[in-house]
Amino acid sequence: MSVRAVVMEGPGRPLALHAFDEPRPAPGGAVLEVVLSEVCGTDVHLHHGRLAGVPYPIIPGHVSVGRVLETNGPLADVDGRPIGVGRLVTFYDVFGICGSCWHCLVARAATRCPHRRVYGITTSAADGLLGGWSEQIELRPGVRVLPLPDGVDARTFMGGGCGLPTGFHAVERAGIALGDTVVVQGSGPVGLNAAVFASLAGAGAVLVVGAPAERLLAARRLGADDVLDITETADSDARAAWVRARTGGRGADVVIEASGHPGAVREGLEMVRDAGRYVVVGQYTDAGDVTLNPHRHLNRKHVTLLGCWGYEYSHLHRATLMMARHRERFRWDELVTRSYALEDAAAALADMEALRVVKAVIGPRP
Ligand SMILES: [Zn+2]
Ligand SMILES: [Zn+2]
Q: Which end of the chain has fewer surrounding CB within 10 Å, N or C?
């Protein structure tokens, strides 16, 4: 028996379906039969070679849902409850965080541990089935497995995808107070999930600045009070003025950047009020420099400026619990606007890059 998986040979190279030997779990590990994986902006960046340290060839797909096919020794959730064969699960896509380096122990910044590896991003296809665009995934010993809670099916979970814990982490960093006005820059999956969690964190109003129209409609469905289409309002000063017009002329209490455009950071600092908080989570790749005025944007503004890199298991766990509780109010499943078979991975990447989809999923039987 062989297992099919999509291989990204290198930046700009065509994707190819390869056959691999059926994996066997290492002691303490497991093998999942993939149900769905995601197609996200990260995969587009990977295909353009915009991330450093990627060991091509890789099998893309970092956040995925699957059924446990085989384990080698007992597998349990964080409460110690056994996870049996057939169970529908996701897993924390990061492994190898050492718990013993300076970053882990002294700084307590696990997302900056230099030993951290990510499924589908920093794992080579030569090391096994360590990406979700495949019929099966190998879970290495120590990978944290999270059974999907009752009511959360694969499609609902993948409608959140990696944007769910990332948006959750950004909102946690933002420290939103009850009644705050929150601006989210960017209407991709991270921005949409940040808007959801801002509402759940008690925001008095949530404003989303982004594009295209379909994603802004999704933002409205997810409870955004107002949206601004950046293709219609192309002038940065006009966009900041739009925010001030909705915040008594002062600017927003909290701004979360989830757009990926360096220019958005300067713009966001124009949108945030004096002594407000600004979280930058969207600059996942190095898209270039931007000019700030340190006097006006930082010092005199008395702003709190925070970066936000990746997420920890804690964010995935709690975000998934919130999804289970609020899935009727925020229909994450409706964010999935297209599903692709493994054979159609190239089309999936092209559609994601052209923003023709809100959230795209891929799988052996999508
Ligand atoms: Zn470490
Ligand atoms: Zn992703």
A: N
CA 270/CA 274 separation, integer angstroms:
10
CA triplet 17, 18, 24: central angle to 5 degrees?
Answer: 130
CA of 62 to the centre of ligand 2 (A): 6
Question: Which tens digit of pLDDT belongs to each residue from 57-85?
Answer: 999 999 999 999 999 999 999 999 999 99
In whole angstroms, give the CA distance from residue 207 to residue 205: 7
Separation of 37 CA from ligand 2 center, angstroms?
9
Measured in Å, residue 308 CA sits from the centre of ligand 1 at: 17
Look up the pTM and report it: 0.97
Alpha-carbon 353 to chain mean position: 16
In angstroms, the CA 107 to CA 155 distance is 37
Q: Are 44 and 285 in contact (CB under 8 A)?
A: no
Pairwise CA distance, residues 128 & 183, whole Å? 42
Question: Which of 261, 253, 203 is closest to 236 using CA atoms?
Answer: 261
The pLDDT value given to residue 1: 83
**The tokens of 192 are what?**
């949409």
